[in-house]
Design a protein that fits this description.
mainly alpha; 3 helices
């Protein structure tokens, strides 16, 4: 099961990077959301997905057994889901507000802070 998750994480990272390289703001925002999900899945996969023993410490023991799943990545992911959702909501509102002000969703047309009379910086090589 973990090799399947590793392939899925690689595919999600690839899609996120592809969307980040787009010129449209909404695609960049979707790339940020997919990247957050990919990182969450990566952390979850690192915590041993296929263990069948619950992460409970027995009364006569001081630590988890080797067959138990690690509960720390699961707790980290719960926090990361809330943070990534709030970050995505903030970016969505920010992108919508920029669209309202600038009347465009293309990032190369959002050059409000640059001086009007001077030469533009290079946009590519």
């Amino acid at each position: 099961m973990e090799p399947l998750f590793a392939i899925l994480v690689g595919a999600l990272f690839t899609v996120a990077i592809y969307l980040f390289l787009s010129k449209h703001v909404i695609r960049i925002l979707m790339g940020a959301s997919i990247l957050g999900n990919a990182v969450n899945l990566l952390i979850f996969t690192a915590g041993r997905v296929t263990r069948e023993v619950p992460p409970i410490i027995l009364a006569d023991s001081d630590s988890l057994s080797d067959a138990a799943a690690n509960p720390l990545p699961q707790a980290l992911i719960l926090t990361a889901i809330v943070i990534s959702f709030s970050f995505f909501a903030f970016l969505l509102v920010l992108g919508y507000r920029a669209f309202q002000e600038l009347k465009t969703d293309r990032s190369d047309e959002m050059r409000v802070a640059e001086p009007l009379g001077e030469q533009s910086p290079p946009t590519g090589y």
